[in-house]
Specification:
The structure is a single chain. This protein is an alpha+beta fold. The chain folds into two domains: 178 residues, Immunoglobulin-like; 151 residues, Glutaredoxin, CATH 3.40.30.10. It is built from eleven helices and 15 strands. A hairpin with a 5-residue loop joins strand 2 and strand 3. Helix 2 crosses helix 4. The protein is globular and about 70 Å long.
Length: 373
Amino acid sequence: MKLRNISLLITLALALIAVACGGAKGTQIKGQLKGALKSKVFLDEIDPSNMTKVLSNVETDEDGNFSFQMEEGVQPGLYRLRVGAHQLPFVLDGSEKSVVFTGDINQFRKFNVEVKGSPLTSEFLSIAQALINREMDTKALFEKMKNAKNALIPAAISTSLLGMRMDYTDIYKDVLKQLKAQYPDLVLTKSFESQTNSLAKQLARKRASEKVKVGQTAPDIELPSPTGKVYKLSDLKGKIVLLDFWASWCGPCRRNNKELIKIYDKYKGKGFTVFSVSLDGVDSRMKRRFSNPDDLKKYTEQSKQRWIQAIAKDKLVWPYHVSDLKKWESGPAATYGVRSIPRTFLIDREGKLFALNPRYDLEDKIKELLAKS
């Protein structure tokens, strides 16, 4: 056998060994998307500050097939497929060779897409679906984040599901610790740190300007229930009370109700209860839409019925449900400086504010008050 032929055989053998061992370079991200025929698909890299870096874009064929070939592979981080207004976030740890998405772009918002080749993305989408379908409450979500083996999962949840909201700043601080431990040099980690620090400063300024503060007597509320019975917050002095501002139309509020019911059932026999103020109803901005007073009255009644139905559907069994049906112009909301919901205030047995907007640590705060009783 000639030397040239031997050399060729060796080259071919080495190539086969490289392929067999996964030595091929790069990452392929591909799939088939229903509803995206002959459409442009963007591959974005995202970070906590909502800055988007477009990595590439391709056009799907007549069957919705697309393919991105990342010759140098991908860095660990948060990514997104984008087709028009439809967006699907996903997570890569940098080891992926081939990631395949199959589904309908109209299901992106429900995270209902099949993915192969990226275990982290599969885990993230599963968590997102459970949250949207109310199969997981916020406490369980925070536990998932805390116990995640890969810090990119809680980072993705923070960015794409919680939206880097100021209310969750303490959660983000824990996520940042996880990222620094696993990915200290990643650009994502540095961006997450910058955003978390910014939110912490905003939260500090907000708390400094709060209308109500820890230690002060909780301003009284006196409003009717759906049946017309009037309840006063001050009448509950002697109990530990969670003052809860919510609404039937508020998705996060409805998801939080599941956990709130568990806490109520667990501690109601020890003197704990909930006083719920609904921001259902009609404010002046909405009233301008109605030229006919009868139409306005009808819409207001419909809003009240949605409130009543939400109480029943979510099984909010405590009796203290009140509202002035003025939506964002609610009197108690103004008194307590409520600009977003859900918003809660934990009140001690003496009627004083003990904690502002406790969420993931609500049960710990209740236990603390019970220990003082």
